[in-house]
Amino acid sequence: MSEPVAPPQEKTFRKFSHQQGAEYAQHRRDYHPKLYQTLVDHHTSTGGQFDTLLDVGCGPGLAARALAPHFRHVIGIDPSEGMLNSAIELGGESASSEPIPDGSVDLLVVSTAAHWFNMPLFWARAAQVLKPGGTVALWTNGSIIRLDDYMEPGNRHNRELYVNMQLPWTVPDPVTEFDKESFVRKEWGTDTPVSDLEKVMATTSPVARWREAHPDAANTEEDITRTMRREIEKAMHDAGVEEGKELLSGTAAAVMLIVKKKA
Ligand SMILES: C[S@@+](CC[C@H](N)C(=O)[O-])C[C@H]1O[C@@H](n2cnc3c(N)ncnc32)[C@H](O)[C@@H]1O
């Protein structure tokens, strides 16, 4: 068997403080209700059960909380203590390092995190923990951030909307438990008011790295998120958009990839 080459480990969220986790939870926008409904409908119509949901790279638990009403058990896992602290503050019960039993998960979701994963290892482990007929859904809102000096390979993969995502049948050792015929790719375009954009941009890892490199400018008028917002507003006003009506159409394109484990 060939050994998968591990991508560089994500480092920014991993070292998030308690406060950074709380700020992320406060400002990161939740995903559109239609995204969740599309996923629940797909899982139902393809024979999925609703006992256990696993959210990998859960951060403060946006997806876990949104989907929780459909499931009896919900598990969120994440390597960042700052993120997990926020998840617990927002109602997560406890921290535990118990392994997830094989064959126990009905729906495994990864929201805006799979671009940091070692996908060959991910698919192999996902095949173990899922029940036969279980579903994997990976999605992201993409990103409009263009801070090239602060972009990691994972950020670029995200910005490209997962066009090069490794799938169970494209990894070096294909994971044959998944059904290639079941693969679905769905795309959306969402509109963002420019006033929200600044706070949403502040939840991204390139901005966290920019702020680390420019501590005196962070959270001031010189902050990168503030100057980007001002530039966008100016371009819009120059183009005749009225003040207060600045809306970026189709900015945050979202994509969701769904794969079923064979029944
Ligand atoms: C942009 S945040 C997304 C958090 C949450 N899923 C959401 O939708 O808001 C990316 C998350 O992936 C986590 N992460 C990074 N590398 C990971 C890995 N190898 N395995 C699991 N989670 C990872 C980070 O700690 C961070 O919480």
From TrEMBL:
Residues 54-137 form the Methyltransferase type domain. Transmembrane segments: none annotated. GO terms for molecular function: S-adenosylmethionine-dependent methyltransferase activity. It comes from the Eukaryota. Pfam families: Methyltransf_11. This is Methyltransferase type 11 domain-containing protein.
